[in-house]
Each structure stands twice: as structure tokens, then as C-alpha cells.
Amino acid sequence: MGKKLLKLGLAMILLLVTAFSFNPGTADAASSKFVTQGNTSSKVVALTFDDGADGTNISKILNTLQTENVKATFFLTGTGLKHHPAEIKKITDRGHQIGNHSFTHPYFTSLTASQMKSELDKTEALAKSVTGKSTKPIFRAPFGASNNAVLSGVGAAGYTHTIQWNIDTVDWKGVSKTQIVNKVVNNITPGSIVLMHTGAGAPGTPSALPEIIKQLKAKGYKFVTVSEMLNLQTAPATGTTYTVKAGDTLYSIAKKYNTTVSALTSLNKLSNPNALQIGQVLKVKAETPSQPPPSTGSTYTVKSGGTLYSIAKKYNTTVSALTSLNKLSNPNVLQVGQVLKLKADAAAPPSTTTYTVKAGDTLYAIAAKYNTTVQKITAANNISNANVIRVGQVLKIPK
């Protein structure tokens, strides 16, 4: 009798361990997968472009991609979204994929998990405001700097894949068209991910791109976005509700609709996120008024549940405009009762600072650091060649 009770007790323990082995909070925060190349034998290639504060060549790049009927992937920064939102909107309008490249382009290896999340969340909110599209689920680390702590923090922020590359054109160094073409064509393999840039610091890229596409097509390659190569779902499913089916988990539903387990739990007021019933109808999007009231003044008082994105949408403005207007250090942190300006009182005068060039600096990197553009720096300093700056040179940095 004692042995039977012992076996029964062990069986019950095993059942309890199995039942609680899936923790939606843990699953939601799984580490991001580090990817340098697609795992495929098919002749497919993903052309990717990093966009910083200076997006000088976006239009040229997009025109070539449209002419050649090629889709690519662009990794966006918050500085770029603030400085050339119209150009960035063209990226998604033409069917290309966007990913998150941080807000201020810092080394993520020197950030805490909360700082990583802030960088990613601010860029995501601004990208949605500008394009209506999400940057999830892909992230590219600034400078390619990543480690286990970064992958953990990025995964916790909702980015399931950290995208590196296996072909670096080093176009940001100002190398020639021929060097860029040869770097790509001579190193291409099935599943390659190619790194290029959109700024004036990469002048060879726009002219190299048509030749890269032509030669790779001749080799039998097809062009795909990163998510197409990795079979990732990039856009959230449509609809505001979802009916639970056999085998569903809250984690799988959250992933399908590009949201989180915690968000679905809160939205549906679930007491136990592990207990779903077949046929249960879940809200996957918060209800919003069909006709939001127009602004009746120049200020808005923050209410419970208010976000800068929802306020910007309600008053037909942008997150970046409200952030700048109210001098917010963190647009993701609002307080109930906080009064926000919706209209500018008067234009602020431009400000200027200086920077002393150090070894290894490029005008593109300096522009990104100070949230300005290469063109503005070259104009302010009467620089005839943006690729030639010298160590010790003092530059005026216009805002």
C-alpha cells in the first residue's frame, strides 16, 4: 500500500511539473536568435540597408529596386525616422520590409536590458507613427555589436531575430562602385545577407546596386526580404478578435498577431493565461473610437492608459513632433494628468556645437552621433569632399 501511494505521489508531481513547464512570461522573453545567413540551399539573397540620421540615397536605392522588381529590408533608426520620415514612408509604401536598428545607434553591449527596451520601443513607436508598420520581429545591432546579454534583452523586447550579415560591403568607408559589386558577387552563397547603407557616406552604393542585381540574377539568384528568407511573419494578422482553436497557446496567438502574452492577458482580463478553451473569443486589439474627437485647444491632459502614439494619432500629429515639442526624454513614460503641448508656441532658433575629429571617424558616424545629416555638416564647414576629413579637424555641428 505504501509503494502504491509513493508511485501515485510521484505521478502527481510529474503532472504538476508538466502542467507548469510552459510559462508564457518566460516564453515571451526568449532570447533573440542571432542570424548571419539563411539556412538554405536555394539561390536566394537578402539585400539589407542600414539607415541612420542621413538617408541621402534612399530615393535612388528605391528607384533601382522598383525598376528591377526587387524587395529588400531596411533597418531604421529613430534619428533617421525623425530627420527624413517622408523618405522612410516610401520604403514601406513600396512593399519593402523594415527592421529596428535602435533609436540613437549606441553600442547595445554597454546597455542594460531596460535601456535596450527603451531604444527599441521608441523606434518602434515612431516607425508605426510614420509608416503604419511594425519593425518586429527583426533587429540589427548598431555596429554589429552583440552578445548573450544583448540577445536576451532584445528578445525580451519582442524581437525574435537579431540579423547580422555574411557579406559586408563596407560601403560606409566610401569605397568605389566596383569594389562594392565585387565584394557581393564574389562572395555570394545561397542564403546570403548583404549589408549596405543609405547615407551620403556610402556614395558607391546607388551606382553599384543595379550591377549587383544584374550579375546576381545572371547567376540564378532571387531576391527576398529577411523575413521571407527565414519564414518569419512580419505583418500582424488582420482583425480585432481571434477564436481559439485546438492546440493554441496564448504565446502562439501573441506571436501570430505581433503582440505579447502580457498584453493579451491584460486585454482579455485572463486570470490564468495557461487555460484557454476551444471556441473562446479573444480580443487581439484594443477597441478605439471610430471617430476620435478633434483637438479643441493647444494642450492635452494625459489620461489613464494614454500613450504618445495614441495621442499623436488622435490629434493628427506624430510621436516625434510631440516628443520634440514637449522636450520628453522618454516618450514611453507619461504620467496621468501630465499636460502636453499639441501646438508649437514659436519656432526655436537653431543651435550649433563643435566636434574634434578623431582617428577612425567618418562624417556619417559623426552626423549619426549628433542627430544631424552629412549634408548639413558639409555645408556648415564648407567641405567639398564628404569622404575626406582629418584627425584634429574642428567641425561645426548644426542641429
TrEMBL record:
Query: Domain named LysM: which ranges?
Result: 240-284, 298-342, 353-397
Residue ranges occupied by any NodB homology domain in the UniProt entry: 43-224
Position of the signal peptide: 1-29
InterPro entries from the entry?
Glyco_hydro/deAcase_b/a-brl (IPR011330), LysM (IPR018392), LysM_dom_sf (IPR036779), NODB_dom (IPR002509), Polysacc_deacetylase_ArnD (IPR050248)
Task: Tell me yes or no: is Metal-binding among this UniProt entry's keywords.
Answer: yes
Q: Which PROSITE patterns match?
A: LYSM, NODB
Q: Name one GO cellular component term.
A: membrane
Task: Write out the GO biological process terms.
Answer: carbohydrate metabolic process
What is the name listed in the Swiss-Prot or TrEMBL entry for this protein?
Polysaccharide deacetylase
Q: Which organism is it from?
A: Alkalicoccus saliphilus
